[in-house]
Amino acid sequence: MCKTELSMKMSGVKTSIFVSFFIFTMVFQANSITPQPGVNLVNSDVSPVTPCPERLPSPDLNPWKAPLNNPGKYRVGTPEPPKCETPTPTPPETPDENHSKGSGRRLVKNVYGKGQPSTSLMGVYQPGYYAMGLLLQSLHRHIGWFASDFIPILIIEESNVLIFPSGTLRGAENSEIFKQILDVYVHEYGGTLVVFAQQHGYEFGVLPGGEVAGYGWLEDQSCQTNSIGFEQYHQGLSSITTTNISCNVDGYFTDFPENAHVLLRRTINGYPAMIAYQYGEGIVIATTIYDDLGWFFNQSTPDGVKIVRDLVTWGIDSQTLPDFTPEENISLSVPVSNETGFDVSAVRLRLMDPDRDQEVATLDVPLTLSPGESGFVDYLGPSQSLVGIWSVDYALLDAGSNIIQAYQDGARFVVSDPPESVTNPDFYFWITAPEEIPVNEETVFMVHITNNTEDERTVEPRWWWNHETAISLGDFTVGAGSTEQIPVYYTVTATGRFWTAFYEDPEVHLGTASKGVRCFSPVIGADVYMDKPAYQPSEHVVTWVDMHNAHQADQDVNVQFSAQIDENRVFIQSGWIPATVPGSSSEIVYFEFDLPSNAAPGYRLLQVEIRDAGTDSVAGMGSAVFELGEALLIVRDIAPENGYHSGSQNMTMQIENRGNVPTSGDIYWLLHDPEGVFISSGSNSFSV
């Protein structure tokens, strides 16, 4: 807290005066500090520089999306930055050789489904093709895989829906070309993306519009039992009939487009776990559910598998389907087309349940179709109690009731019984921290408190590690409808769990939250530094990581910085920066960037992730906490002991800055008599 005093001369003043001060303009400035070794603030993990501006695609490539600006620069070991290079996304893992024949620029088809599979094709992103493919095989779906350089106009002819399984977007957030491809597929051609849980929240930034952000599974705590709350009905959730849903979820969304609908929420903190939004002609559905991987590892739940099944099935049509209650009889029109060279005398309809493992009913309907002709037949059937998306397939018959065109998809309809929406408790409590932490690393555990009530509340958090004694963090006032974030620093020596309990007074227990972490012995030690502990909007930031190699052999690594700039997990990222850490020595990598002018005050996190350049495995991690501050000015009149009198005299005003960043500017003053008649005015500069 700093103070400064200003002296202003006044003359010809009556014995009683009033002085009004108005801060007309404030020009904030903060002198940057030259980085000094040894200014260790904390440790954390982050990301890389965007591509060079000259290598970004032309804005004409995609007129509805402006190109990104380069947010920062980096240098390795020296003041001079290396040649600017466009970061390369992590190469996708190669699918099983039996399923990878083709380039992936259009769908490489594989009919996994056994028995009576759907004939509508779904596209699955290559890195997650195997696990998701096995799940969809069990659900009798028809799928193909595609690569990151797919051609939208070719893919849309084959599939209206592209599926991105859990964990498959890592590295893609740095590819401007991949972002443009997804934009065109959705915005121009009306495709639908269905995206599941990812490792980091910033990886969702690759989605069309670039507005989705949050926490991934390496930053949050996974939950299963009653982990999700139902918020808003969507036909892709038609199998859900209870407000609280048990499924595998890890992560949540903090930022998303204004037109997005929140479909599911995390019950632990109320943040969205599934969103859906229109983008141009198409639709994006994103979730932090990972029951596709859960199914592969025998950890899935029935509700989780149904959600996966119904989301991708709805994406085939990507439009509102006929929707019936379990008590209503089914009535819908089924389009049919004669693709044979023979005359058709009848259409055979079969009703398939949502899993497509039961042929519930068949019905022959007379209809005459010449070769190449199309038409419609009506399906009329009894009510169905099983909720989900049902299918009516059709086959074509000749005059002798022989099948001359095999079964194919005809129409789909929904049976649903939506539950009540989830209601918010008075408080949400949760903890965020990296999932994996180097042994003996000082780690930031961020404690979050959300007050859902209409009143300001005072909460006392207490924390402990494993079974140690609880330590109070003191009282925190949380405003109505707001969230408080409290960083706790702890040196983790072994795998364990960070616990917190919350009290409104010493006797009233409000709830608990915890975060489990795993320790590993890093190949590379990492100390993260920043040139200052607190910054203000538009200020230049210098940060660096000092990497230590305890082994004798040189280690080639890629380093990524990620700086959180607001409470919604919006990041400035560096890109993957290549570096070599000499054996038994150290190497420093710098990253510099400018904070945006609208950066909101609060505690923020800088994270650094170090990966082996050859194996892409984690080689080290580090983090730092910094504060985005603001000036808080209080102006006082320091009056003489005997008061003011007529004649020339000085008036002294004291300006006190109770904020946490320096500021300077001008103070403008007006002087008038007790009747309000203007006497004089002026201004003085200040710096405090």
Describe the structure.
This protein has 688 residues and is mainly beta. Helices cover 7% and strands 45% of the residues. It contains 5 helices and 45 strands. The strands form 10 sheets. Strands 5-7-6-8-9-16-15-14-11-12 form a 10-stranded mixed beta sheet, sandwiched between helices. Strands 25, 27, 28, 29, 31 and 32 form a 6-stranded mixed beta sheet that branches. A hairpin with a 6-residue loop joins β36 and β37. The longest helix has 16 residues, at 302-317. The protein is elongated, with a radius of gyration of 31 Å.
Distance between the termini: 9 Å
Helix and strand composition category: mainly beta
Low-confidence stretches: 5-101
Query: Looking at the structure, what is the overall shape?
Result: elongated
| Average pLDDT level | 81
> Would you report the number of β strands?
45
State the gist of this model.
By secondary structure, the protein is mainly beta.
Q: What attributes characterize this protein structure?
A:
688 residues, mainly beta, 10-stranded mixed sheet, 5 helices, 45 strands, elongated
What topology does this entry show?
Blueprint: E1 2-10, E2 18-27, E3 40-42, E4 72-76, E5 108-110, E6 121-125, H1 129-138, E7 142-146, H2 152-155, E8 161-164, H3 176-188, E9 192-195, E10 213-215, E11 228-230, E12 244-245, E13 252-255, E14 261-266, E15 272-279, E16 282-287, H4 291-296, H5 302-317, E17 323-324, E18 330-337, E19 344-352, E20 359-369, E21 374-381, E22 388-397, E23 403-415, E24 427-432, E25 436-438, E26 441-451, E27 457-465, E28 471-472, E29 476-478, E30 483-492, E31 496-505, E32 508-520, E33 524-530, E34 534-535, E35 540-549, E36 555-564, E37 571-573, E38 577-581, E39 586-594, E40 602-612, E41 618-628, E42 633-638, E43 649-657, E44 664-672, E45 678-687
Parallel strand pairs: 6-7, 6-8, 8-9, 9-16, 17-23, 25-32, 34-41
Antiparallel strand pairs: 1-43, 2-44, 3-33, 4-39, 5-7, 10-13, 11-12, 11-14, 14-15, 15-16, 18-21, 19-20, 19-22, 22-23, 24-26, 26-30, 27-28, 27-29, 27-31, 31-32, 33-35, 35-39, 36-37, 36-38, 36-40, 40-41, 42-43, 44-45
